[in-house]
Amino acid sequence: MSAHCQLTGTAPRFGNRISHSHRRTSRRFDPNIQRKRYWLASEGRSVRLTLSVRGVKTVDVIGVEAAVARIRSRGGKV
């Protein structure tokens, strides 16, 4: 599963792991990605979205219909 939110576009960020002696090595900060299933009443089916936790909260506020419309307007597949 890709660490990428379909709604907010959140993707992994990169940085450095710094040891006690201050040697730096690469590391990756992954967003908290969840797979959630929502009922899409207009199409009479359920959709499975890959969302960050912030994306899940956004769907709770704007509704699943508006969220799917936003994803599709960006060219995303639902």
From TrEMBL:
<dbReference type="GO" id="GO:0005840">
    <property type="term" value="C:ribosome"/>
</dbReference>
<dbReference type="InterPro" id="IPR001383">
    <property type="entry name" value="Ribosomal_bL28_bact-type"/>
</dbReference>
<dbReference type="InterPro" id="IPR050096">
    <property type="entry name" value="Bacterial_rp_bL28"/>
</dbReference>
<dbReference type="InterPro" id="IPR034704">
    <property type="entry name" value="Ribosomal_bL28/bL31-like_sf"/>
</dbReference>
<dbReference type="InterPro" id="IPR026569">
    <property type="entry name" value="Ribosomal_bL28"/>
</dbReference>
<keyword id="KW-0689">Ribosomal protein</keyword>
<dbReference type="Pfam" id="PF00830">
    <property type="entry name" value="Ribosomal_L28"/>
</dbReference>
<protein>
    <recommendedName>
        <fullName>Large ribosomal subunit protein bL28</fullName>
    </recommendedName>
</protein>
<feature type="region of interest" description="Disordered">
    <location>
        <begin position="1"/>
        <end position="27"/>
    </location>
</feature>
<dbReference type="InterPro" id="IPR037147">
    <property type="entry name" value="Ribosomal_bL28_sf"/>
</dbReference>
<keyword id="KW-0687">Ribonucleoprotein</keyword>
<comment type="similarity">
    <text>Belongs to the bacterial ribosomal protein bL28 family.</text>
</comment>
